[in-house]
Amino acid sequence: MNFTEKIAAGVQTAVAKLYDHEVDIDNVMITNTRKEFTGDYTVVVFPFTKVAKKKPVDIGQEVGEALKAGLDLVADFNVVNGFLNLSIDNAYWLQFSQELFKTENFGQAPANGKKVMVEFSSPNTNKPLHLGHIRNILLGWSCAQILDRAGYEVIKTQIVNDRGIAICKSMLAWQKFGEGETPTSSGIKGDFLAGKYYVLFEQKFKAEYKIWQETTVAKELIKDNIKSEQSESDFWKNYKNKYFNNYSELGEEAKAMLLKWEDNDPAVRQLWSTMNSWVYEGFEETYKALGVDFDKLYYESNTYLEGKRIIEDGLEKSVFYKKEDGSVWIDLESAKMDQKLVLRSDGTSVYMTQDIGTAQLRSEDFGMDKMVYVVGDEQDYHFKVLFETMKRLGAPYAEGLHHLSYGMVDLPTGKMKSREGTVVDADELIKDVVEVARLNMVDRNEVTGKGDDEMQEIIRRIGMAALKYFIIKVNPKKRMVFNPNEAVDIQGQTGPYIQYAFVRAKGVYEKALQENINLSLADNYSTLEPVEKELIFQISQYPGLVLQAAEGYDPSMIANYCYGLAKGFNKLWHEVSILNADQPATIAYRVKLSKLMSDTLKDGMQLLGIEMPDRM
Questions:
Q1: Span 283-309, average pLDDT
Q2: Residue range 305-315: average pLDDT?
Q3: Residue 440 vs residue 236, higher pLDDT
Q4: DSSP conformation letters of 404-438
């Protein structure tokens, strides 16, 4: 039983004796005491006012006195309004830390018997991974690691969007303008090559559109439809999709290619298979650089067929309905949503078709309790529709579906646009942050005394920590701006700052071993300094925080915890002597505390996919 459990049990007993009321121990509200007040843990006593028929301050005083008398671990208390702040006796902090020194797998919760699937990355095969994908990948990977640590059986997966009109645009541009170019002949990474032709299609389409706007048909159209408050340029901007579907020659060719693909045309399928294989090789290189992998891949080219089958079944059960043009829809107005298309009139699928099929196939494959979709917040409505649709289809896993919605990533220069080729590619960004890390180490004269291979690995770890931490530390729901130079700064809330604290603490332990310090003497340490207690308290929060982060699908909680822990150790470093303390027992205790901190910090950063260097 940990401190909060003991306190909750004590409050339960106190309320029963004082007010003759049985309170559910799970309803006893205990938080960490805010920094501006004295104490370690705070009991919220407002819920007891009704049964006690007293003021919150009086209840706090009475419960505080009962806890101090009945629990040896409570050294003192104070009451602020309806908040009872408790200070834990130093002897218990010492005992707790001594137990932690011997604990293995600190922070690992026992298996809870539940299975969760986390879908992340899920790229399109018409372009390389970019900065937006990196946030998705890092959030998904971290959530998977945190859920695993919280006791879940975790399956990491992605749905590869390998078919559809966007992929056909890239294929068509290569077919018309590529002149047989391949990754081998051009020296261009496969996913970059596919992306090159996706951008080229957009350029050719825009040129075609501009020419068409001067035709008689276009001039009659704008004359009949333009509104008085609307400029001609605004009209054409808004009309772009209609032009693609109704007038564009390139659009007609791309749509025809999609229909041929769905009809299994051999030539189209061969081109599709070839170009996708280039992209998969490119993706794999990027995933390797980011240090992520997947347990199972699903492909839209397979799952959309299952989606079509489910929709046909749903039509028979009146979950869906068919319009006069043959398109299939679901009416969600009763759930305060609108009517949603699930199959086009020509029989081709939409994203919803694929997602319905994918969810079903995953359930058949793994039978998971929860399924987490890591997808940007621009798709919030899509997932509300999907989840409601699965409920109406009677899917047994429908209640376990969760959309981890996150904000977009911008650069200091503004938004990115894939079609216009103005995105920051993931490979380029990884290369840039590692280079910034190298230049920073040169500026600090920290590149000497190490072999070249070792130095390059240290630089890589620092650069990747900078990239990953800067992105993960932001709450997923918030939009963010990524600045490589800020990310690599060794001061402030950055990955390198945390790595530096880890290396410093690890160095303390290694030096103690070199000097043959008798660490068993730590058992004799009896006087706990405030800064030591503060660090032990921080470490004690780790297991509970892992569970909270898992419950909220929020890796930023772990990231911010690691920063606070690193600051706590640096405070210890500056306020007390570790290896030069005046008593052998003090030295041994502080060395072991440093080791415990570094182990906890390493574990926390590992949950974020961040590797710690041995030296900096």
A1: 95
A2: 95
A3: 236
A4: EEE--EEBTTB---TTTT-S-BHHHHHHHHHHHHH
- Three-state secondary-structure class, residue 126: coil
Q: Please give the class, per CATH, of domain 3-88.
A: alpha beta
Average the pLDDT over 293-304 and give the result: 94
The pair of structure tokens assigned to 94 is 């010492």
pLDDT digits (tens, 9 = 90+) for 316-373: 999 999 999 999 999 999 999 999 999 989 888 888 999 999 999 999 999 999 999 9
Between 274 and 351, whose confidence is greater?
274
Which residues, listed in sequence order, are joined to residue 86 by a DSSP beta bridge? Answer: 41, 77
| Boundaries of every domain in the chain | 3-88, 163-292, 426-607
CA of residue 272 relative to chain centroid, distance:
31
C-beta separation of 23 from 41 below 8 A:
no
pLDDT at 424: 81
pLDDT band at 125 (very low <50, low <70, confident <90, very high): very high
Q: At what angle do helices 266-290 and 131-149 cross, to 10 degrees?
A: 60
| 112: three-class secondary structure by DSSP | coil
pLDDT cut 90: percent of the chain above it:
84
Q: Cβ(607)–Cβ(145) under 8 Å?
A: yes
Beta-strand pair 153-160/115-119: parallel
Q: What is the pTM of this model?
A: 0.90
| Of the candidates 461, 463, 570, the residue with the CA atom closest to the CA atom of residue 508 | 570
> How long a stretch of residues is the chain?
616
Three-state DSSP at 266 gives helix
d(C-alpha 531, C-alpha 510), whole Å: 22
Tokens found for residue 428: 């380029």
Cα separations in angstroms, 43 against 8, 128, 417: 8, 52, 50
- CB count within 10 Å of CB 582 equals 7
Q: CB count, 10 Å around CB of 70?
A: 13
CA distances in angstroms from 407 to 12, 132, 378, listed in the order given: 42, 9, 8
Which architecture does CATH list for 426-607? Answer: Orthogonal Bundle (1.10)
pLDDT confidence tier of residue 223, bands split at 50, 70 and 90: confident
In this prediction, residues 523-534 reach a mean pLDDT of: 95
Sheet holding 83-88, edge to edge: 30-32, 41-44, 83-88, 74-80
pLDDT at 217: 92
3-state secondary structure 431-483: HHHHHHHHHHHHHCCCCCCCCHHHHHHHHHHHHHHHHHHHHHCCCCCCCEECC
Question: Taking residues 66-93, what's their average pLDDT?
Answer: 95
* Ramachandran angles phi, psi of 328, nearest 5°: -115, 135
Q: Which two tokens stand for residue 419?
A: 């079609």
**DSSP classification of residue 574:** H
> Which residue blocks in 178-248 are alpha helix, DSSP H?
183-186, 190-212, 216-225, 232-246
